[in-house]
Amino acid sequence: MQLSVKHTTHYQYDVPVDYGLQQVRLTPMERDGQKALSWDLTIEGGKKELAFTDQYNNHVELISIDPGGSEIAISCDGEIEVSEASGVVGPHNGYMPLWNFKRETDLTQGGAGISALIEQLGSDHSDDIEKAHRLSALIVERVPYLVGRTDADSTAEGALDAGGGVCQDHAHIFLTAMRKLGFPARYVSGYLMMNDRIDQDATHAWAEAHFGGIGWVGFDVSNGYSPDERYIRVATGLDYRDASPISGMRYGNAKENMVVQLQVQQ
């Protein structure tokens, strides 16, 4: 399937910004089953300082805000060819060793809520991938998709306590539980072509777990199935902070307003 993406993130500040830097992870990496036919990233109100591949094999561009500027827009426009693989991404590669994906982070620390979720999962002898799918279903049952219950800094345990969350929270809970069960697991950010709309409010997030003899397999907990040819993988990491589309810093006390325009279609 050939997917078209048009994505603009527009930041406005209430006072001029003297200095600001943003790390931008918005360029899909080519891999088996995913090929960029075209991809352009443009900046208004700033400039590209450098580009590099990080420890998770993500393409990262460092963007500076024009000194004294009060707005910056980061836009992507491209076409990606994606093939169906039933969620299987394949063997591990990149600079980060596989064992590191079993490590907890501030957002994925397990506590009583995760332990209870694992206990509810049970200890039957179903195969590992089937168990991961059952875990995914339990998470949505316990934490239904609800906007406004959590924020970008919410932890896996916090989302469980809130009783609702979004795709970021579902991925964090899944990662935390899978790591507790002994599996390497990672966060994925990217794009999803929805069947009922073209215009979207934000990028999407899901999770991947690594299984012996198969490699990485994706799980979109929020939607209840493994990613197919409607998904574009862009960045991965231990949690949201490693794979967020845009993250950065700036000097001063300027208040920020962000507007996202996103279209994904065949």
UniProtKB/TrEMBL annotation:
<feature type="domain" description="Transglutaminase-like">
    <location>
        <begin position="159"/>
        <end position="223"/>
    </location>
</feature>
<dbReference type="InterPro" id="IPR013589">
    <property type="entry name" value="Bac_transglu_N"/>
</dbReference>
<dbReference type="Pfam" id="PF01841">
    <property type="entry name" value="Transglut_core"/>
</dbReference>
<dbReference type="Pfam" id="PF08379">
    <property type="entry name" value="Bact_transglu_N"/>
</dbReference>
<dbReference type="InterPro" id="IPR038765">
    <property type="entry name" value="Papain-like_cys_pep_sf"/>
</dbReference>
<protein>
    <submittedName>
        <fullName>Transglutaminase family protein</fullName>
    </submittedName>
</protein>
<dbReference type="InterPro" id="IPR002931">
    <property type="entry name" value="Transglutaminase-like"/>
</dbReference>
